[in-house]
Amino acid sequence: MARFDLEKTSLRELNAWLHGQPDAHVAVLNPAGRHNIAVGVDAETDIDIEGHVGYYCAGMNKNARITVHGSAGPGVAENMMSGEVRISGNASQYAGASGHGGLLVIGGDASGRCGISMKGIDIVVAGNAGHMSAFMAQKGHLVICGDAGDYLGDSLYEAVIYVRGAMGLLGTDCIEKKMSPAHKETLAALLKAANLTHPVEEFRRFGSARTLYHFDIDNADTY
Amino acid sequence: MLVQMSDRGPDSAGVAIYRDPVDDGYLKLSLYSAAECDWSEVRDRLQESFGKASGVEPRASHAILVAPVSNALIFAWLDEYYPALQVMSVGSAIEIYKEKGLPRDFVRHFRLESLAGTHALGHTRMATESAVTTEHSHPFSTGLDLCLVHNGSLSNHNRWRRRLCDEGIAFQTDNDSEVAAGYMTWRMQEGDSLHEALQHALEDLDGFYTFAIGTREGFAVVRDPIACKPAVMAETEDWVAMASEFRAIAQLPGVEQARIWEPEPATVYSWGS
Fold first, then answer.
1. Cβ contact (<8 Å) for B260 and A52?
2. pTM, entire model
């Protein structure tokens, strides 16, 4: 197993090594809230980060399985393409923003704008998710096992949201929808992938009412 | 913590530290002199006016004045003898030091390692909308033993500055954060508690902001309803810390055991009061 101690090795050295498509298991020590750790990795590798990370950790991740044993700063797993990113603690704002694929699991709470503009990523939050989560989310799933903050799913496209806890105000054009057996199956698979055991019956599903897809002449006066 | 935040705010740094509270009947002021100042001359004159228990303790471009005076009396005295000196803070425990330049230089220049107190607020500034001067630096005094630091930008500060001037609040700069400080001073003059003043600020101040407010007993944190400007909290049995990001907190002793979390938007948090 390769080990990088960020007190001794520069971040650039670590990221350059990760970009060399390593297949080894990598441990990153003493992250101390540094920014841009393990950004742009494109390799089937396991990366364990032992501590709290700063901005943009695991951004643009492809294929790698990255675990943060701690909390993450803003923009964790931003624009992820595939692979897995797991945060044992809390994640700051816009976790998983604009992600195209892969799985992001947040063991604690997610802050505001979690999954903003997500484009296919699956995000599972074991705790609460903050305000404006899944804003303009286009594709993928956001599972919130705790409470959802205000304006959930505002201007939502076709991403699907599942919430187990209390709801804040719903965002514009976001509505509750029926849970079909297919939805329960999808949800169960996501919870399993996140190592969570909540019964799917405890969740409600939210999606787009699709009233913003086309211009409505009755709204002309609003502008 | 300040040095860790250097790349977020490289142009000036400041700190408000709460320490060595003065006895009842005394006031403690932080003074700043833009030009060279003979502080021993200030001390002699102060002792002549208010007795030997008064004192002036210089620290770089600043000095701490302690005297058995009322607010009105010491301001009148300063106006008469030292109109060029600027008052950075007034209270019983607060001391404010701030200066242009890199946080590292500030820490060294003001010998911060020699200061100990119950709590402190620091700020490193990256100026976006007003000049880089000592006066434009944070923290800003907001009344007796109160101060404010701000990350963000207020969009209605000109209107509020005019209104607050009408209410008798004085401003040293055209800085938007100073308006937030002046707003807090005004609200509390009107009888608001700190908590009420911050609730009113949420309604009246437009723009984006994370504020940290220092009080005699502790500090408070509030973020605007959109909460784009970052804030992270860390709490242990022994201490509580707030910063723009975890890097600043990572250096604190016992941080491995700290609970790390983020303040909610439009919510007032306070510790110690």
1. yes
2. 0.93
